[in-house]
Amino acid sequence: MNAAHPEWTEADAAAARSAQLSGARTLLDSGELSARLGRSVTISRVRIKPGHSVVAGFTGADSEPGWAMLTRDADKLSKARQRAQDSVRAEMNQVPFLVHAARRPYLFSGSVWADPVLAKDLTEARAALDAESEANRPWTFLRQNPRRRVVAVVPPAGPGHGEKVIRVAAKKTTAAALAAAQRWRELGLPLVRSTPVGGRGTALSAPLWGWADLRTHPHGPAAATAGAAVGELHRLTSAPHSSPVPSRSGTGTSAVALVAPWLGPRADRLAQTIQQRFDRLGPGTSSELHGDLSPDQVVLATPGSHKIRLIDLDRSTIGDPMRDLGSWAAACRRLGHPELVEEFLTGYLTQTNADLRRAAAWEAFAQLHAAPEAFRLREAHWPAAMERTLALGEEALQR
Description:
The protein has 13 helices and 16 strands.
């Protein structure tokens, strides 16, 4: 096995067995997938539907992402092949698509441009951007979640223009993010201006603003500014109706138990305790939410600056405002930056009040649902990371 690829462990083998598909290891082990593709790749994200499919996103030496899928569904192979052929015709060049196993379970792979769900959306977005500058503009990919979302940077269209961040996702998700951005800008919140790209309603463009996010460069004053902005959002969009008590804790438990069955009972106990806490607290207030608040969703203008922009509104929604506080606190503690929790809260309290017990319950909820992410991202020590995240959820309920 390539020394650059993590060693295959018994925990990995247990996760592969959970897929209930022969050959699942190929999409969980970078070394195995590299051997099948005939080039060195690193798996960056996986999704498992037991007995049905495994999907993996990966990057190679050229940094352009690709994907691979193992499935029992012949229709999935047929549609993926057709999407790839459509992309070839639209682009008038070769879009790699390979079938590695033509019998059930089927195994096939392709480039990001041949994504079975997003291929048409990516093709149209690229054509619209190229038409804008009358030239082919290369894409530098930042993130890929196969069949769901792609984020990339494209160079300036010409003199006087800057680089742009392009996000391509499902139409429903994109429309919600654009609508939220427009509303929040009208409220005076610190956002970059997003505009649609192409005519499919699945791509957004925004200026590549700022220096770094708070995940990679934590800075207290900027966290306080973010807290004030989110507090203002919650205050200005507060609604008279109550938000319901959450009832999705069980989905976090099942996601943990699927790939790490030895942690299933611990996750179940945490889920039950969270539900009991929410039952005692009762319904909360309601406002517009970011929905996925974390330090990597806050961009810092320059080194040492307190000026920020909030980004990635794909999961914006309406609900209990303490959910945003819990999401922020959970992410900060996983990153080892608890000081950002206090700084954010300081800014938040300048705009509105906070129910810290409810926020702690939402923090535990966020940790439970984040626990499987270490596996999905194929982190080398994902079992330990999952266990630590569950422990953080348990600690949140003690506050």
